[in-house]
């Protein structure tokens, strides 16, 4: 039998965590032959609801679930973790300024970065879901000097899947036949869902859609604001789809995804005029075993794309400025 993989999850008792843990434990994330140990991290008030979730995990009798540990101690929770999914974050509350949210989260993610640095497996892959995800990834990495920045990723996979689903609906294709949709920049309303490289059944997506006004006036804002539309309809934020995107991201990273283009917020290498040290979403391919490679050799973006990519870059820059005083030198 395969050696179990240790998967740490923060915010485990939250709405996303509830959906996520079931998918991980059932084998959806790492495959039907890969046992897992779950290492669940919560705040003190989260421990009681978490005990209910662990009762449900036990009651599912998942054949692949080897052990479940629940803790408020970050180093214990991240101990020897091969995968860490950071979901817990300070929610935006009424009257809270954007800067307050950034600062509150920076301290949470600074502590988590330091604990990962101290206790996680040296080849841990860290996926940040909690918002503001890109800047939280930056803060966590800055506090983990012994781990490579490349080991920290911010999730933009849900945005990618939302964009692909919208193109499928518009063209009547199956979402499986929509490829190479790219999310650039921040996981926020400034993100740029880009169809320039996308294909539908192997043909250029923009040609299949044949409606530039739809792309610019409907598709892009709809993808950017999809989260708000779900809150409006459901009365609660998206949780199952966010969990599903985290499962997809980690599966592709660990198992590999051939030549598929997948979007991830990763540390910039300076390309596209994005300064190094920002966590900016770009297309990558995944070879498996935690290795990803950015898609290179793309033609220079057209003026529209360049301006969209720059707007989301500027937002990330201002987020970094908002937490700079908390970053270790
Ligand atoms: P959720 O599980 O719904 O959301 C958790 C985080 O994911 C939020 O920051 C949320 O951002 C973010 N997120 C990213 N993508 C999405 C998406 N597509 N849809 C919705 N959310 C998204 O929050 P809950 O309040 O239900 O649960 C949070 C849990 O985290 C609680 O149990 C709490 O105790 C715990 N927690 C743990 C901490 C820790 O481990 N140190 C610190 C703080 C909280 P947004 O707010 O922008 O929607």
TrEMBL record:
**Top EC class of this enzyme:** oxidoreductase
Q: Which organism is it from?
A: Porphyra umbilicalis (Purple laver)
Per UniProt, the keywords (alphabetical) are: NAD, Oxidoreductase, Tricarboxylic acid cycle
Cited Pfam families: Ldh_1_C, Ldh_1_N
* Top-level taxon of origin: Eukaryota
- Catalytic site: 187
Reaction it catalyzes: (S)-malate + NAD(+) = oxaloacetate + NADH + H(+)
Q: What molecular functions are annotated in GO for this chain?
A: L-malate dehydrogenase (NAD+) activity
- Using the record's annotation, list all stretches that form the Lactate/malate dehydrogenase N-terminal domain: 6-144
Establish whether keyword Isomerase is in the entry.
Answer: no
Its EC number(s):
1.1.1.37
Q: Which residues form the Lactate/malate dehydrogenase C-terminal domain?
A: 156-321
Q: Per the similarity annotation, which family is this?
A: Belongs to the LDH/MDH superfamily. MDH type 2 family.
Which SUPFAM superfamilies does UniProt cross-reference here? LDH C-terminal domain-like (SSF56327), NAD(P)-binding Rossmann-fold domains (SSF51735)
GO BP terms in the entry: malate metabolic process; tricarboxylic acid cycle
Binding-site positions, NAD(+): 11-17, 105, 129-131
State where substrate binds.
92, 98, 131, 162
Coiled-coil spans in chain: none
Tell me what this protein is called: Malate dehydrogenase
């Amino acid at each position: 039998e395969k050696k179990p993989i240790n998967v740490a999850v923060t915010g485990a008792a939250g709405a996303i965590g509830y959906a996520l843990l079931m998918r991980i434990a059932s084998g959806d994330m790492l495959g039907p032959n890969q046992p897992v140990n779950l290492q669940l991290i919560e705040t003190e008030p989260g421990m009681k609801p978490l005990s209910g979730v662990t009762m449900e995990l036990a009651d599912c009798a998942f054949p692949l679930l080897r052990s479940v540990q629940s803790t408020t101690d970050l180093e214990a929770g991240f101990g020897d973790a091969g995968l860490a999914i950071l979901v817990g974050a300070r929610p935006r509350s009424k009257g809270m300024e954007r800067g307050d949210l950034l600062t509150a989260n920076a301290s949470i993610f600074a502590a988590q970065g330091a604990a990962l640095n101290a206790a996680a497996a040296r080849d841990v892959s860290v996926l940040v879901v909690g918002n503001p995800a890109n800047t939280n990834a930056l803060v966590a990495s800055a506090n983990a000097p012994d781990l490579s920045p490349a080991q920290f990723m911010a999730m933009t996979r849900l945005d990618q899947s939302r964009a692909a689903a919208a193109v499928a609906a518009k063209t009547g294709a199956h979402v499986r036949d929509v490829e190479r949709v790219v999310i650039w920049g921040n996981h926020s309303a400034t993100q740029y869902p880009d169809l320039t490289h996308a294909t539908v059944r192997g043909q250029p997506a923009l040609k299949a859609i044949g409606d530039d006004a739809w792309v610019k006036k409907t598709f892009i804002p709809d993808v950017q604001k999809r989260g708000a539309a779900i809150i409006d309809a459901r009365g609660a934020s998206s949780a199952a789809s966010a969990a599903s995107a985290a499962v997809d991201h980690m599966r592709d990273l660990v198992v590999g995804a051939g030549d598929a283009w997948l979007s991830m917020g990763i540390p910039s290498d300076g390309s596209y005029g994005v300064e190094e040290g920002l966590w900016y979403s770009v297309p990558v391919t995944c070879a498996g075993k935690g290795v990803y490679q950015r898609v290179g050799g793309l033609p220079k973006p057209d003026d529209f794309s360049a301006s969209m990519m720059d707007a989301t870059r500027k937002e990330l820059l201002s987020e970094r400025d908002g937490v700079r005083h908390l970053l270790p030198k």
